[in-house]
Amino acid sequence: MKKMTTGIAGTILIAATLFVGAAISDKILGDANGETNEAAVKTQIPTTANSQKVVYAPPSIEEVPDGPMKEAILYGYELVNNTHVAADDYVGNQLSCTSCHAGAGYDEQASSLVGVTANYPQYIARSGGIVTIEERINGCMVRSMNGKKFDMNSDELEAMVAYFAYISQGVPIGAEREWAGTSNMKSVPIPDVAHGEELYAQSCIACHAADGSGTGATTGPALWGENSFNDGAGMARMSKMAGYIQNNMPVGAGGTLSDQDAADLAAYILSQDRPEWANHDKDWPKGGRPNDLMNKEKREQVKNGTIDWEQVLSTN
Ligand code: HEC
Ligand code: HEC
To answer: What region holds the Cytochrome c domain (predicted)?
Structure first.
């Protein structure tokens, strides 16, 4: 950027600086309110002189060009789309990446991964350090997939990165992906767990089963129990679970539930038993730990009626 000093490029530089400045002050204010999640100091860099918006236009998986990358990209797609089968030695539950990142990350609404490689490396407060795309994938492997990390030079990890780079084509480094992060509820209402249980029976069991064990990674993934994500996953937070439900569920009718209903459902789901994350004490090493993470202690508090929802929801 600094080398671009002439004419129109100079204008872009000034505009970019203003945008970055605005984004950073938002971030600082966000932190002060405890509003930010582990995802991102986002910078907004205009791609052309007239347009500051990055367009959602990933290349199709049907049209991967022939050449040495093709095999890796298609293998990466398979690993993301069918993870518990294609990488069953590494996955500890019955989920696939696509169980949350719908359409293997192509879906614009459900935790989209289009453009993701443009946003890494990135500082992540949960880790208290700079995280590469490889480390971020492994983060979902050990938490959301309740499994094991891939080796850094493994074919699997290389293929996933190749696939994510492919679906990130055209998104400039550092760009703000407006479609990402939409499955996050900024202000979660105080939930009514009993009402969540009723709603669950009405609207969710057809695909996710009455006991939460699901009907399949791509038809209705496990929402709790041993085949679901562990309580170190992002989805174990009320803000992310309620946001995901409100934005995307039931499948085909995303955006129809009220925030209150989505919060009730999230509280019901997250008060059920699930695998435990062993390293809670190592997360957020530099502070900023959110209160809305539903660990075993909070699940117990829901059961015995002592949970203080206001306190739990005070930081998201
Ligand atoms: C149980 C749900 C779930 C599953 C399964 C899951 N993830 Fe995630 N993933 C999340 C959530 C939630 C986030 C955080 C999004 C946010 O902070 O807004 C996330 C974030 C990410 C990010 C960073 C996205 C960004 O915009 O910075 C990557 C990369 C990622 N996941 C890859 C994967 C891969 C690869 C798999 C499969 C191995 C996977 N995830 C499985 C829920 C899941
Ligand atoms: C028609 C079937 C269907 C219905 C009904 C449905 N879901 Fe889903 N759900 C899915 C599928 C399929 C996915 C995987 C992501 C995708 O493809 O959209 C999913 C993913 C999820 C996830 C993220 C995955 C995970 O393991 O955490 C949550 C949370 C969720 N659903 C909650 C609900 C809730 C709550 C309801 C009821 C309001 C509901 N769903 C109704 C099919 C359904």
So the answer is: 71-168, 191-273
Buried b (16+ CB within 10 A) or exposed e, 39-66: bbbbbbbbeeeeebebebebeebeebee
**Ligand 2 proximity of 104 Cβ (cutoff 6 Å):** no
Residue 260 Cα to ligand 2 midpoint, Å, equals: 17
Q: What is the pLDDT of residues 61-108, one digit of tens each?
A: 999 999 999 999 999 999 999 999 999 999 999 999 999 999 999 999
16's enclosing H/E stretch is: helix 7-32
Res 53: pLDDT: 74
The mean per-residue pLDDT over the stretch 143-167 comes to 98
Cα(1) to centroid of ligand 1, in Å? 30
Distance CA 305, CA 309 (A): 11
Q: Which ligand is nearest to the CA of 262?
A: 2
Q: Which residues line ligand 1 (CB under 6 A)?
A: 37-39, 80, 83, 95, 97, 99-101, 111, 113, 116, 119, 136-137, 140-141, 144-145, 160, 180-181, 184, 229, 233-235, 240
Residues 239-282: pLDDT tens digits?
999 999 999 999 999 999 999 999 999 999 999 999 999 999 99
Contacts 24+ apart (CB under 8 A), 127-132: 127/38, 127/283, 127/285, 128/284, 128/285, 128/286
Mean model confidence pLDDT for the chain? 87
- Give domain limits for the chain: 68-167, 193-313
Domains 68-167 and 193-313 share a fold: yes
**pLDDT the model gives residue 281:** 96
Q: Is the pTM of this model over 0.85?
A: yes
Whose Cα sits closest to atom 27 in ligand 2? 223
Architecture of domain 68-167: Orthogonal Bundle (1.10)
- Of ligand 2's listed atoms, the one at least distance from the Cα of 222 is 26
Higher pLDDT, 51 or 115: 115
